[in-house]
Amino acid sequence: MLLYNNIPTDLDRYLGMITIVSFFLAVLISLLVRIFLSFNVFLLFAGCFLIILSSVYTYLVLTADARAKFVDEVLPDALQLMSANLRAGMTIDKALLLAARPEFGQFKDDINEVGKEIATGKEFSEALLGMTKKIRSEKLSKTFQLIVTGVEAGGELADLLEHSASNLRQQRLVAERVRSSVLVYVIFIFSAIGFGAPMLFGLSSFLIKVITDIFAKIEIPVTDIGRKLPITFTKITLTPEFVNTYTIISMIVTSIMGSLILGLISKGREKEGLKFIPILIVMTLVLFFLVRFLIGKLLSGLFQI
After folding, report:
1. What is the reported pTM?
2. Which CATH number is correct for 67-178, 3.30.420, 2.60.40, 1.20.81, 1.20.272?
3. Where in the chain is the domain with CATH 1.20.81?
4. How large is the C-alpha radius of gyration of the chain?
């Protein structure tokens, strides 16, 4: 992941630094939470430590995927420029160096590096495939593998680059059409998790609290008439605190699973939905407590009567 993110840091040093920082952050967070909530401090520490480490790795994964996504977008233009330079009579290394434009971002540095390696005597196939080890892009890896195979089979490099660029553009158009067709499902799932679930949970939890309070105040006298009633009243063991805890856990789990489904539907990969997890969790919890507060303010007087 460090290689994919172009971070020039020693792996052992990076892991040691992240572990130490995560340890002290977990201790600090667990002590602060322990002041306000009566949770087990050791469980808090273990949970915070794992969450911080997972967050760092998730950040590296998402950053690497974002870089790969940008490379996939500019790759057809880069291949088209390389092909045009080769048709103009330039050598392979010079065609690559001149195709490295500033608008390609970090991909410009990777193209320059490949051009310099070819200029210093490195084989074209080895230098080109070496770029795929630094960018986490399946599309880039397959495209360069096809180009190298075509060159080794005697194909013209300029034609291979041009056809590859054309095929990549066609694939992008198809992907955009598919993405637009599933947009309705993405909106529906996001709305159901972010708005529907917390509103229904907020209403139901408030009603359970009201029903529990009402049943707790009802007293049926132990008489012959009371025994002959077709209904019986027993003690309710379901507490509002248990309902709230279950609701919060349910909404968090639903937000996590729903985010993965959103990533799978919209982008074809579950990890693309990781960025939706904090948004959905915060949205559902805030809306849940807001609905409970508003319903309590509106109906509390009625039920007190």
Report:
1. 0.66
2. 1.20.81
3. 67-178
4. 30
